[in-house]
């Protein structure tokens, strides 16, 4: 497979704290990749550097052969990278369908389609509303299309956020803790939807603390520690690598000891 997304020696400092230190990762096209590491290892910071929500101090980010280092979020989005956030970002006072229409409007705007300043002015055309409903059916929340987003459970908001970003037909979706704070049934639903989308060609990069979720879903997992990618491999390789134990537990076992 070809590499769709990669970071090359990305560095980021906040004050005197080195959040990312020569961090290099690769995500193959058509894969489901995982990004794990202890709290403070730089996972969300790396997401922010990739998607333009923070500025890289040194190093580069590439989408295919295109350098996207320090492009603003709307430009990154327009090139085919969508993301969700650790804390869901939906419009609470809008209905579920209106959230989807806003997502469609934003996608069209980044692609140069002329639209009204108010994305709800025409409430979306028939094709937009049909695609929105299809995605809501896909994620299992179509019954809530007319409900205010603030009435959804936290897990349903995560499904709405996933539906929202899919309106842009992204090449790659970055998911920041999609299983965080939701019940096992919804975790299984999200995992199934990710697999279905991946089978249709969507690439994923997932930050997640739920190891069962990551190891059961991802083709390849990269471990960050102190802002650096220390090991990358299949879930089987990651489970047995002493550097992973060291990153999470602070001490590595010597395999040669009896």
Shape: globular
Counting structural domains, the number is 2
N-to-C SSE series?
Answer: EEEHEEHEHHHEHEHEEHH
Strand content: 15-25%
CATH class of the largest domain: Alpha Beta
Evaluate the radius of gyration.
Answer: 19 Å
Largest sheet: 6 strands, mixed
Helical residue percent band: 25-40%
CATH topology name of the largest domain: Rossmann fold
What does this 3D model show about the protein?
With 258 residues, the protein is α/β, with parallel strands linked by helices. It folds into two domains: 1-80 and 170-258, P-loop containing nucleotide triphosphate hydrolases (Rossmann fold), CATH 3.40.50; 88-169, 3-Layer(aba) Sandwich (Rossmann fold). It contains nine helices and ten strands. The strands form two sheets. It has a six-stranded mixed beta sheet with strand order 6-7-8-3-9-10, sandwiched between helices. A four-stranded antiparallel beta sheet has the order 2-1-4-5, with helices on one face. Strand 7, helix 6 and strand 8 form a beta-alpha-beta unit. The longest helix is centred in the last third of the chain and has 16 residues, at 184-199. The radius of gyration is 19 Å and the shape is globular. Residues 110-116, 119-123 and 252-258 have low confidence and may be disordered.
Q: Key features?
A:
258 residues, alpha/beta, Rossmann fold, 6-stranded mixed sheet, 4-stranded antiparallel sheet, disordered C terminus
